[in-house]
Amino acid sequence: MGHMLEQYGDMASFASLRQPAWHGLGTVFDEAVSTSEMLDLANLSGWDVRQEPIDLPGRYHGGDFFANVRTNPFDGETDVLGVVGSRYRVFQNEELFSFGDNILDGGGTWETAGSIKNGTVVFGALSLNREITVNGETTENYLLVSSSHDGSHPIQASVTPIRVVCNNTLTFAIGHGGRKAKQSFRIRHTQTTEGRVAEAREALGIAHAYLDAFETEMKELINVSVNDKKFHDIITTAYPKPENTIVKKGETLKGGALASQTRWEDKLDTLKDIWASETTPEKNAWTALNAMTERLDWHRQSRNGSYEGALVSASGFDPATNVEKNRLRKVTREVVGLTK
């Protein structure tokens, strides 16, 4: 189940406006719907997420921990979604979607919504009615709202050029006007969204500041040609040869040093294979950056060793992966001479 969507028989917690997703699951509808209708279509309404006390020997005892449970939208049974601390505040799916709708003051259209990882993470995407055009290709843009019910993910509103159906999201902290254009706004589950809509609007600049900066940077990177040698310079700067593999003439690598060298060589080989498979007529710095983010998303084992974990990273829900993508962006710009 690579898509990670929650399923029950032939039903799924997913809905999409007009376009079916690659996985072919969920409900496809033809006309714009209200927030409550979107929740119903994606089987996200009426979960009634609530907390039940835990008092078990060992770690969970004394009222410091609670089980987050819900009413399953398909069979009505009670599901345990996760264990959280006493300061955790339950945030219903209805509150998350209302938050997203209010950020855009009702001006967006619900495009997709769903539940992944057995109901622990939920998301919804609103069209911003804002396009980016680069090299004659037009990209739609969205406000993605997401949250978790197990403490793994904050309440978040993000700007993304990807229509989220379990797909790769390019997540960059891009400079704009001497500052960083906000791509996301986060609220911890120990806080409340009350009174935060105006703050979220300001932080996101109603999305347009980030999208303007994103479009400008894409054009900058596309206008810098990158050949095979320059791509090698980029990836070896991003991933330098491990220090413990540098030996004197006549010596051979053994043990951990040999393993480090092998991993490094495999990483470079994977990157070069992705680079070689690119079909664009003229390769550039944007192509190079995309090759490196593609390896992160689809050509490596996730930290927990599962394909499901890799999909979470590729969907932009993993902070560590987002930090690494920003590092790769900076390295790419520096190597090709775009240092500002």
Order of helices and strands: EEEEHEEEHEEEEEEEHHHHHHH
Strand content: 15-25%
Distance between the termini: 43 Å
Question: Helix- and strand-based class?
Answer: alpha+beta
Mean pLDDT: 80
Strand order of the largest sheet: 4-3-8-9-10-11-14
Rg from alpha-carbon coordinates: 22 Å
Beta-strand segment tally: 14
What gross morphology would you assign? globular
* Relative helix content: 25-40%
Oligomeric description of these chains: single chain
Tally of contiguous helical segments: 9
Brief digest:
The chain is built from 9 helices and 14 strands. The protein is α+β, with helices and mostly antiparallel strands.
What is the strand and helix layout of this fold?
Layout: E1 7-8, E2 11-12, E3 14-17, E4 27-29, H1 35-41, E5 50-53, E6 65-71, E7 78-85, H2 93-103, E8 109-116, E9 121-134, E10 137-148, E11 155-160, E12 175-176, E13 179-180, E14 184-187, H3 197-204, H4 208-222, H5 228-238, H6 255-277, H7 285-298, H8 307-314, H9 319-335
Parallel strand pairs: 3-4
Antiparallel strand pairs: 1-2, 3-8, 5-6, 6-7, 8-9, 9-10, 10-11, 11-14, 12-13
Helix pairs in contact: 5-6, 5-9, 6-7, 7-9
